Amino acid sequence: MTVNRLMSQKVRELYEQFPYPLRDPQEEKDRLLMPPLDTLSRVNHYCFGGTKVIDASFRALVAGGGTGDAMIWLAEQLRDVGGSVTYLEPSEASTRVARARAEARGLENVTYVNATISEFAASKPDRFDYINCAGVLHHLEDPQEGLRDLASVLKPDGAMGVMVYGEHGRLAVTEWRKMIEPLLNNKDLSEQLAMTRKLLGNLPEDNMLLKMGGGPGFIRGLLENDPEIVDLLLHPVECAYDVHGVYDFAASADLHVAAFTGFFGFGGTGKAHYAIGNLVRDPALLRELSAMPLRDQQAFCERYSGAMPLHAFYLTRSDRAQAAEMLPDGDLAPYFFVKPTPSFFDDLVALAGQPVLIEDGSGNAVDLTGGPDLARLLAVFDGKNTVADLVRILRDDILDKQPIDMNSIAINTLGAVWALFHKFDWMLASRPEGWQKAESERQLTVRKQ
Questions:
Q1: What angle do CA 330, 336, 342 make, to 5 degrees?
Q2: Fewest Cβ atoms nearer than 10 Å: which of 83, 242, 287, 357?
Q3: How far apart are CA 118 and CA 5, in angstroms?
Q4: CB atoms inside a 10 Å sphere around CB 21
């Protein structure tokens, strides 16, 4: 048996013994996990320029589905329109958990395939509109081959949502693995786990793992979750990427990075961490950094923050990176992906001329001083008015008292408003009456500073 096949067998055995992540199908009756990477409003905006028709013909693949987070969320979104999800996972134990979760939710639009990525690609299936592959490729002996296999089953205009480990923000785990490697010989996985639990239970207060996880609560959570310990600290195969490595990884399969996005937690607005303007405040330095190519800016952000343990991003065959952040095309309609509270516009009017803070309840906020015209403009971002309509409304109805031609000023003003509200995905764009499902977790509020 070759070394690669031996390692593949070890990985499969790991997930048979410890299905990951730890999930209880009974909890499906009380909550729905919604991984931000696979929210189809984001996928449509960043990968398809807001033009994708998501209906019964839409086919999604979850490659390395684990216990089912991405599969459940995609299947729930596609349930009412008749779209389908293929769940691909070599671990039978993980598949049992994922299937039980889907059954608990009454999901019938999922096909289950127990195979590896390479085995599935070799079967020449019908191609997919969207492929999720989160936390998987970095556990393959040849990640580039795995990405090429996925590209081979992607439609020509399809897209992928991928997550891989981050090199710099994961340094604590890398150092832990170097430390513990000599102690793993001649121990089976259960023995390795028992030893690791002892080490974690007496961790020195200056250990890098504590800093990476945000404190003692992170370690307490690990000690309550054996699959998390195994996946994080005892996995037999893993690699990590910096930002430039992500771009090179994508290029190895003739793909482009369309956008970085969020992966963890509430709202999942991780893309803001890759924006120079959110980290550097000095105007002169910001101008210098902003003149660099986008990928160099993002690489600077990764090293400057030092706290990105992973990278979540969208891949497409065409290069959409710049277009995704610019003011959308004239025939697209911006809409509030994060809905304002019922009193938002009235509050904005009441506080006109005063410094205010607009926030979404998850730590994301912008400060500005707006007038009543801002509230009037934002109120017509309804998902029906296109960018061309908004320019006309701003020019003729809001700025109509100005003595000069306001067309270019209207476009620039609209672009500034879009940039502000797109910064944390508060606004996205699609065709009018297209896929405009709003997020349900966050709401926009405004208050006086």
A1: 135
A2: 287
A3: 13
A4: 17
The letter for the amino acid at 192 is Q
Per-residue tokens: 399: 């700025």
- Distances in Å between the Cα of 381 and the Cα atoms of 40, 225, 361 are 20, 44, 21
Architecture of the domain delimited by 3-168+240-316: 3-Layer(aba) Sandwich (3.40)
| pLDDT recorded at residue 320 | 78
- Side chain identity, residue 171: L
- The residue whose two tokens read 């992170």 is 218
CA dihedral in degrees (153, 142, 231, 240; nearest 10)?
Answer: -100
Q: Which residues pair with 110 in a beta bridge?
A: 85
Radius of gyration, CA atoms only, the chain: 23
For 195-229, letters b (16+ CB in 10 Å) and e give ebeeebeeeeeebebbebbeeeeebeebeebbbbb
Amino acid found at 314? Y
Evaluate whether 333 touches 384 at the Cβ level (below 8 Å): yes
CB count within 10 Å of CB 393 equals 17
Can you say how many angstroms the Cα of residue 121 is from the centroid of all Cα atoms in its chain? 24
What pLDDT is stored for residue 183 in this prediction?
A: 94
Closest CA to 95 of 12, 5, 27: 12
- pLDDT exceeding 70 applies to what percent of the chain? 95
Closest CA to 52 of 154, 158, 162, 131: 158
pLDDT tens for each residue of 334-360:
999 999 999 999 999 999 989 999 999
Model confidence at 1, pLDDT cuts 50, 70, 90, reads very low
Order of strands, sheet of 338-340, starting from the edge strand that comes earlier in the sequence? 338-340, 439-448, 355-359, 365-369
How is the chain split into domains, by residue range?
Answer: 3-168+240-316, 171-233, 333-448
Where is pLDDT greater, at 306 or 406?
306
Give me the DSSP letters along 333-365: EEEESEEEPTTHHHHHHHTTTSEEEEE-SSS-E
